[in-house]
Specification:
Length: 279
C-alpha cells in the first residue's frame, strides 16, 4: 500500500480517548497491512496532524507500540514497523489490553504502594504468630501453583496474601480502600504474572515482607512493600519484558486474559534468583 493511501486511512480522534486510541488505531493499521513490515511511519508532526492530537500523545502511542513489539524506533531516523511483524508476539487482545490499561495500572500500583506500605507497617506492629504462619502457607501454595503452571491460582493467592496483610493492619479505612483496589486489580494481576520471571521476584519479595512482619519491624515491612511495588512497576513499564510477555501469553492462549499456563519453565526457587532480604 502506498504511503499516501496509508496516511489517508488515519482518522482524527476524539480527545476524551485520544491517548489510548492513537496507539490502538496505529496498531490496527499495522496489523491490517496499511503499514507493512519495514515501512517508516509518518513523522510525529504528521501523525499529530492526521490524528488531531498533540505530539506528546503521539510519542506516548509510539512508546506503547514499541513496547508491544510492533515498531522499532531508530533515533534520528524515525519509527519503523518491525521488519517481520511476529504475529505470535502481538496477540491482538493482549495488545489491546496493554494499550488501554497500562497507564491506569501504573497509577493504581502507585496508589496501592503508598497505602499498603503503611498497612504493612501497622501489621508488623501488631504481628501475631498466626498471621506469619498464614502468610507462609500462602507463599508455599503460590510457589507450588507456579511450579505447576497455575497462574490463575498464583494470582488468587497473591490477592489473598496482600489482603491478609491489609486486614492485619486493623485500620478499617485502609482495609476498605485497599480491598477495593485489590478487587479492581484482579484482571491486571494475571497480566503481571505472565511477565517473564515476575513470579520468582514476587516470591522473593513476599518472603522479605513476611520476615519483616515476623520480626515486628514496621520500617522494614514498609521498605519491603515499597521494594516489591517498585519491582512490579519496573516490570510493567519495561518495553523488553512487555514484548516477551505478549509472546508468552499468545503461545499459551488466544484471549483477553493471560492463560493459566506458566511462563516459568522450571521449579521456582525460594528467592527467585535474587539476593536474600537484608536483616
Amino acid at each position: 500500500m502506498s504511503k499516501t493511501e496509508a496516511e489517508a486511512a488515519i482518522r482524527p480522534l476524539h480527545l476524551s480517548t485520544a491517548r489510548s486510541s492513537a496507539a490502538e488505531q496505529l496498531r490496527q493499521l499495522i496489523e491490517s497491512g496499511h503499514f507493512a513490515p519495514g515501512d517508516r511511519l509518518p513523522s510525529e508532526r504528521k501523525l499529530a496532524e492526521l490524528l488531531g492530537v498533540s505530539r506528546t500523545m503521539v510519542r506516548e502511542a509510539i512508546s506503547t507500540l514499541e513496547a508491544i513489539g510492533l515498531i522499532e524506533v531508530r533515533h534520528g531516523s524515525g519509527s519503523y514497523v518491525t521488519a517481520e511483524v511476529p504475529q505470535h508476539s502481538v496477540s491482538a487482545m493482549w495488545s489491546a489490553w496493554y494499550i488501554a490499561h497500562r497507564q491506569d495500572l501504573i497509577h493504581l500500583l502507585q496508589v496501592r504502594e503508598a497505602l499498603e506500605s503503611k498497612a504493612a507497617a501497622l501489621a508488623a506492629q501488631r504481628s501475631r504468630p498466626m498471621l506469619v504462619m498464614r502468610l507462609r502457607k500462602i507463599l508455599e501454595r503460590m510457589r507450588s501453583a507456579g511450579e505447576h503452571g497455575q497462574i490463575d491460582e498464583v494470582s488468587a493467592l497473591d490477592s489473598e496474601f496482600h489482603s491478609a496483610i491489609v486486614k492485619a493492619s486493623e485500620n478499617p479505612i485502609l482495609i476498605q480502600l485497599l480491598l477495593s483496589l485489590n478487587a479492581v486489580l484482579d484482571n491486571d494481576r494475571l497480566v503481571v504474572f505472565s511477565l517473564p520471571d515476575r513470579l520468582q521476584r514476587s516470591l522473593h519479595d513476599h518472603e522479605c515482607i513476611i520476615r519483616a512482619i515476623e520480626e515486628r519491624d514496621p520500617l522494614a515491612a514498609q521498605a519491603a512493600l515499597h521494594e516489591h511495588f517498585e519491582s512490579v512497576l519496573k516490570d510493567v513499564e519495561s518495553p523488553r519484558r512487555q514484548t516477551q510477555a505478549g509472546s508468552a501469553h499468545h503461545q499459551d492462549r488466544e484471549g483477553p486474559r493471560p492463560q493459566s499456563k506458566s511462563t516459568v519453565p522450571e521449579p521456582v526457587p525460594t528467592t527467585g534468583g535474587r539476593e536474600p532480604c537484608q536483616s
